[in-house]
Design goal:
This protein has about 240 residues and is of the alpha/beta class. The protein has a single domain, classed as Rossmann fold. Helix content is about 40%, strand content about 20%. The protein starts with a strand and ends in a 14-residue tail after the last helix.
Length: about 240
């Protein structure tokens, strides 16, 4: 099974768009895919624009929203804080059981975190530990803006420190205008600094629900290298 965890360098880096693109490309390649957002905060249950709703649509809409997103918390805070304030601490073991149920019988599973790698789910467990427990390789989504070199390299170092394998870094466009000098120079600089981890550019997508556009952009960006099934060689 292809097992991918998507993390970001920060909130607003474009994780959901990139996760949806990975899922759309996997489906184009003939895979049955489970998409998951273990914990989502600051959304209403029936919000059709939520991260979980977008991921559910990208995966074909066959799974219940509460299977895609087992935990929904009302306040837009880190999961640990939002859960404590709601009086419902996150049960990491229950999340693991939900992950196993959702991914059973699928060719691939793609899990989107919240914020960055070290965002806490509980006082003791952040997404790095969740990804490690679930055996996920990591794709880092980095918003293409000034400061991304530091943020991306810190995240890469944190992944390696946690014993996580990084499949690649996606440098995600945050607007349609191409940005300024930093945005134009970040790709080459980050590719050099992060080597041998591949760094792939991803364009601005006007409609994140357009699965054809997402899959096309993923193909052009070279995402086939990120979704390769490498289980045969033990990675």
């Amino acid at each position: 099974m292809i097992r991918i965890g998507v993390t970001g360098t920060d909130t607003g880096a474009g994780k959901t768009v990139v996760t949806s693109a990975l899922v759309a490309l996997l489906r184009r390649r003939g895979c049955t895919v489970a998409a998951m957002k273990p914990v989502e905060t600051g959304r209403e249950p029936d919000d059709a624009t939520s991260d979980a709703a977008l991921l559910r649509g990208a995966a074909g809409g066959v799974d219940r929203i509460d299977a895609v997103r087992p935990i929904l918390l009302p306040e837009p805070l880190a999961p640990w804080i939002a859960a404590e304030r709601a009086g419902t601490p996150v049960d990491v073991d229950a999340l693991g059981a939900a992950f196993r149920r959702l991914s059973t019988g699928r060719d691939a599973v793609v899990v989107e975190g919240a914020g960055g790698l070290l965002v806490p789910l509980t006082r003791e467990v952040a997404f790095d530990e969740l990804f490690r427990r679930w055996g996920l390789d990591v794709v880092i989504v980095a918003g293409n803006r000034l400061g991304v070199l530091n943020h991306a390299l810190l995240t890469l170092r944190a992944c390696h420190g946690a014993g996580l394998r990084v499949r690649g870094i996606v440098l995600n466009a945050l607007s349609s205008d191409g940005g300024g000098l930093a945005e134009r120079t970040n790709l080459c600089a980050l590719a050099d600094l992060a080597a041998p981890v591949p760094v792939l550019p991803f364009p601005w997508i006007d409609d994140p629900t357009d699965l054809h556009a997402l899959a096309d952009a993923a193909e052009t960006a070279g995402f086939d290298g990120l979704i390769a099934d490498e289980s045969a060689d033990g990675d």
